[in-house]
Structure formats: C-alpha cells, structure tokens
From TrEMBL:
It comes from Sinomicrobium weinanense. Pfam families: AAL_decarboxy. Transmembrane segments: none annotated. This is Alpha-acetolactate decarboxylase. PROSITE patterns: PROKAR_LIPOPROTEIN. The keyword Lyase applies. Belongs to the alpha-acetolactate decarboxylase family.
Amino acid sequence: MATIQNKIVNKPYFRTVYLLLLAGLGCICCTTTPEKKTGSESITTKDNDLKHMDYLYQYSIIDALLAGVYDGDLSVGQLRTKGSLGVGGFNHLDGELYMNEGEVYKIRYDGSVHKVPDADRIPIAFVKHFQPDTTLTLVQKGMDYEGFRARLQSFLDQNELYAIRISGSFPKVLARAPAPAEKPYPPLAEHLKEHQHGFGLKHTRGTGVGFYLPEYMGKVNIPGFHFHYLSEENRSGGHVLDFVADSLYVEIDRASGFVVQFPDNRSFRRADLQKDREKEVEKIE
C-alpha cells in the first residue's frame, strides 16, 4: 500500500485586522489566522481521510464534462464523506449541485430546489471539509460579481486553492441551471447553448459556496472563481453568473492540496480529453 507524506495544518486561533479603504471603495473587516505551522505525518491511501489532510476532493475532471461525460458512478452519500461544502452536477446533467454543511441540494432547470437522497449519482463534483481560516466582511454599495471577485482576489495567493463561502442579502442574483441532456450526449457548450435556463432572483438572502483555483488547474478544474447559490429556506438558486450585494460575509479555507478520483466507466475512458477546451470553459462561465 502506498504511503503519502502529508503536512497537517494547525488552525489554533484567530487574530483580527481592520482595513478601511478609501472613499468609494467601501470597507473590509478581516479575520485571519497567523502563519500556519506544519508537521509531518504518514497517511496510507486506504485511509482516504480528506478532512485530516485538508485537501480538496474532486470527482472527474472539467474536460470530461465539457466532452459530454454526464454520467458517473459516485453516489451523493459517498460524496458527503469527502467534504461538507462544494459544487457539482447530477447524472444526465439534471441540475446544479449545491453542498453546504454536509447537506446536498439539486437546483433544476425549472428553478425548483430539492434535497437530494444519498442514492442519487453524479458525474462531477468538487468538495472540501470546510474549516475557514480567514473571514472578511466586504461592504460596498451595489457591489457586483466582477467587483467582488476583484476585491477578494487581493486577499488570495494566485497559486493556492481555496474553498469559499459567501453570505448576505442580494438585491439581484443572476443564476442558471441546465435541463437534462439526452443521449447521445453533446459537448457541454453545445448543450447549454439550447438548454441553459437563467433565473433573475431579486431581493433574496442566501449563501454562495464555491472555489478559487489557479490557472494551472485548467483541464482538470475551472480556473478562477466558481460559485453556486442557494437562498434562505432553499427556495431558489443556481450556478452564479452575476449578482449585486451591498455587504457580504466571506469565509475562506485554504486547501493543502487536491485529490482527483476518475469515473470508472466506459464513457470517461473513451472521452476525447486531448482537445484544448479553454474557449469552451469561457463560454460556459
């Protein structure tokens, strides 16, 4: 059995830093940990203790989804053992997957939201056992998604992996979810061109969950920011395309690394994963 040398991250206490930006840029209250101390510990792969390892777990890769691999073998119940927060999709491309605090929801193309049974299966997902080590309160009147990403980027290291949760009141959220695909499955960009359903959500409170990943993760995952949203009382949500907010509470959890598990099926093994699909990612995001 292979042995992995893994660094265990200690998150012992918090210190608070207050930053006041110049007029027109809003203010930020930041809570973060000091420099992380590490130790070394041997872990065998059979343990699969992702919480202990502080890793991002990924089922399948984004290029497989782009190529039309819409059916997977992993169950929602199995996914819930890999993390407590994350995003993904469902077999046949039937809706967006939203995971927060270990609970999994499906947001369908008709806008309905459903709590998902453990038996449901997925073709792709990115999750992490969420243990935030930094918190921010971003305050800016009319802050849109682009502005939010630009401001948050300044707190992140470009080569690190982060799980992120954002909460607040949203005057507007533009989200989407796909309608189910029929076999033979077309590439994702082609399917979304005809079967992407958008939702203009107004005056909701809710929580977005997602990730920031560096450019070198291309072909495996989606570089940059990727969020799914769910309103309070689980009434609406979807894959985030844009939003407007005046104040957001942001929790950030830096990952120590990532683990990828491949689907064990014919569709994945025969998919064209050699093609450069960077422009397809730009279309779907």
